[in-house]
Write a structure and sequence with these properties.
The chain is α+β, with helices and mostly antiparallel strands. Helices cover 52% and strands 7% of the residues. Strands 3, 4, 5, 6 and 7 form a five-stranded mixed beta sheet that branches. Strand 5 and strand 6 form a beta hairpin.
């Protein structure tokens, strides 16, 4: 074993999570659960659960897990796949800027799946497992982006965080952990992100397949299956990325989205929202909206979306929603929201331009500026705006709670949503509660 792997294995087996990282993880966990609940009725989510029920069964109860907000028992990889696909298709989940993608949407479903047969797992231990997997996933992402020319989806690297959770809960040896990370990396979906941007579909960010691959990798490795060492972990060219493992807690730097659309649209949305709020503007006051943003943001879908996927990977459409309704929520980018002509009619008022100086700031920052031209010719400019929700401009706990209830309550009911959110306080106080106390509220169907 290489020294690099030994150091990583030491961290995975005993991450020594500080209280601040565990507290940050509490909000990331609850926010992701809210997105999972809100996504339950989406067509991609239904299809993923039906697929798992039909094709990913497990005869042995030791290898079964119930799907989130569904209740049916399938295999552990099947349950992880279904929930990750569900979350990924309501694009409101957390992310990490340098990773250019998302961690929680794969590793949180994997924890629920693997923890099914660990009813005595403490909440503190579960949170520490998640923090560990976030840290591993973040560095695997940065290593992959540095060493390959294409821009791959999150499933290509969050699979390693899933495998790390699986190995911990399945009692894998160090040798098996090394094989699992190698299997997860080798089979992780090296899917090209910009293909999905060009043609938005149910594939989204690849995290469903990342969760499936990572879970299978752990189970295969424990059974003796071998894989090549993970080069994103052990290659000397990426050693510096892993040197701060256990010292720099990236989990505290993840963002929580205020809107269920691609993060690349958030800075323009924040800029427009601020202009409208500060100037008491209504939609009919606005003649035109001019957006300056970065290349990837400008490449988002520009037409009238006919699917939730296209609506979430759009920039003009959520801006039109913001103009018309003053906010952007799940109902606006699904169902009847897709046929809202009062929103579609606003698209010709919006123009988007990519600025090299904003592109140069990506992925460290997602930034933009917006100019609004009023009906009387008055011009209002936002100035430089960075997307809210990350460490630079964090959402308050109250804002995160409001988002959770807005996403979850319409689907699972206000009482059940409140019961889930109420666990935040004992989680943050490190109370001696079990993870299964949360599982019971998350696995039953709406």
């Amino acid at each position: 074993m290489t020294p690099r792997f030994r150091k990583t294995a030491d961290f995975i087996s005993d991450p020594q999570v500080p209280a601040a990282a565990r507290q940050a993880m509490t909000l990331l966990l609850l926010d992701t659960i809210g997105v999972a609940a809100g996504a339950t009725g989406l067509e991609p989510a239904r299809l993923a659960r039906e697929h798992a029920a039909a094709f990913h069964g497990a005869a042995d109860p030791r290898h079964q897990a119930r799907m989130m907000f569904d209740g049916r028992a399938v295999s552990v990889p099947g349950a992880a796949f279904a929930a990750a696909t569900q979350i990924d298709n309501l694009d409101g989940h957390d992310g990490y800027n340098p990773a250019k993608g998302h961690i929680g949407c794969a590793v949180i479903p994997a924890l629920f799946a693997f923890a099914e047969n660990h009813p005595d797992l403490s909440m503190r231990a579960a949170l520490d497992l998640l923090v560990m997997s976030y840290e591993v996933s973040a560095r695997a992402a940065i290593a992959l982006h540095r060493t390959v020319s294409d821009y791959h989806t999150s499933g290509a690297w969050n699979a390693l965080g899933v495998a790390a959770i699986g190995c911990r809960l399945r009692g894998a040896t160090r040798e098996q952990l090394r094989e699992a990370l190698g299997i997860a990396e080798y089979h992780g979906p090296r899917s090209q992100m910009m293909r999905e941007i060009a043609t938005p579909t149910m594939l989204h960010d690849g995290s469903g397949m990342g969760a499936l691959t990572g879970a299978m990798a752990a189970l295969l490795a424990v059974d003796g299956f071998q894989g090549a060492p993970a080069i994103t972990v052990e290659n000397p060219d990426v050693a510096d990325i892993w040197d701060d493992l256990g010292h720099d807690w990236t989990v505290c730097k993840n963002y929580i989205k205020p809107y269920p659309v691609c993060r690349w649209a958030h800075a323009p949305l924040d800029a427009l929202s601020c202009l409208m709020r500060e100037n008491a503007l209504a939609c009919d006051d606005i003649r035109a909206v001019q957006v300056n943003t970065f290349d990837q943001s400008a490449a988002l879908y520009a037409g009238v979306p006919d699917t939730t996927g296209k609506a979430q990977y759009s920039l003009p459409f959520p801006l039109a929603i913001m103009m018309r309704h003053g906010h952007v929520g799940p109902a606006h980018i699904s169902g009847a929201g897709l046929t809202d002509t009062s929103v579609a009619d606003l698209l010709p008022r919006i123009t988007v331009t990519a600025l090299p100086e904003y592109t140069a700031r990506f992925p460290a920052q997602r930034c933009a500026d917006v100019t609004v031209i009023l009906q009387d010719g008055t011009t209002l400019t936002s100035g430089f705006t960075e997307a809210r929700g990350g460490p630079e401009a964090p959402l308050s706990t109250e804002e995160i709670g409001a988002k959770f209830h807005a996403f979850a309550a319409p689907v699972i009911g206000a009482e059940r949503a409140s019961q889930i959110w109420a666990l935040r306080e004992p989680m943050t106080q490190d109370a001696p509660i079990r993870f299964s106390d949360l599982t019971a509220l998350v696995t039953d169907p709406p």
